[in-house]
Amino acid sequence: MAAVAGAHGIRGEVRLKLFAESLASFAAHRTFDAGGRTLTLEAVREGPSGPIARFAEVVDRSAAEALRGAELTVPRAALPPLCEGEVYWVDLIGRAVVTPDGAPAGRVVAMANYGASDLLEVARPDGRTVLVPFTREAVPKLADPLVIDPVWLEV
Prior knowledge:
The chain has two helices and eleven strands. The protein is mostly beta strands.
């Protein structure tokens, strides 16, 4: 759902790097797992540099700084159902990649979004990696294995 980017102020608030669809979808959850530690959301708001959250268990700046880099997750059962053609990024990571004719083309090792669109990071069989836009043109079939147009697999 998010990662803790650092502390905000002296009262234990944290800055978030949001992975959820919106601040509202993040705020819909009350508890989060932070590497085996349960955190209870008390408040979240938009800040000048992104979302700022306050958790009941984080009472000062030192505790907030200790959370830097922690990923905030929720159980899969807490996520909303997907609509036709939608997929959670976590379901793509590790998936095999093939060309439309079925030739092995690699494996998805990560997902990213640098502002323009979602990107699949595909590790090719020869060890190189390529970034493939997660669009209908590049990924015409959401199947398992994932079918990708070979034009996008060239380095």
